[in-house]
Amino acid sequence: MPVAPLIRVQAQDFDLQAEIDALAEGRKDIGAVVTFTGLCRDEQGALSALELEHYPGMAEAEMRRIADLAIARFSLLGLTAIHRYGKIAPGENIVLVIAAAPHRRAAFDGASFMMDYLKTSAPFWKKEHRTDGSSGEWVSAKDADERAREKWR
Amino acid sequence: MTVKLVYFAWVRERIGKPEEEIELPDAVKTVRDLLSHLKTLGEEYEAALQYPEVIRVAIDQEHVEHHETIGSAREIGIFPPMTGG
Predict the structure, then answer these.
(1) Mutation to test the B interface, candidates A9, A58, A64, most B Cβ within 10 Å
(2) pTM for the structure as a whole
(3) How far is residue A80 from each of residues A21, A36, A135, B31, B48, measured CA to CA in Å?
């Protein structure tokens, strides 16, 4: 019976340690936990915030589809993915992925796979707010992100 | 057939509304047909869908390719390439 991933899309921040504890609570079969946290950068002072827009319903559904693939492919014992939306200031958290497995390789790969697919398939969009007050641009999708996903095929 | 369209990011901004219900002409069979049809609805649609090849589409909240048929879709999402994470 494969484990069910924990997926959340929320405006509020998350607590990394609380999420690790929730994932590993009562388990004695987990030998490796890998976490990835994505934060908002200030782009050398040019950025005052990122505005994260998402497709409610589909964002959760797509993250769950990706997570189920990751769990099956790397035989993960647990997978948590939390993505924030709304206005996020530099230094604040945007996304959290936690992958648990018996050994480190599956946990590293599971977390990496989840992030690579999430970036190109989960329906979220970033808009920049600039410190000079000018109206920011929507962030463009990067070819490098597309290639990062392709390497898992 | 009536279908609910939902728009996101700069597609939403250029069209000027987050969602709408439209009546699909019978000739609109595929996602590509839908994008071509929408471009005829006004300059705001023309601006949003100027380069249809970059536009991503989801039917009932699952990604689809442009050659796929719309079928009995209830909700069609239209948006730019995703930039989350």
Answers:
(1) A58
(2) 0.95
(3) 11, 10, 34, 33, 35
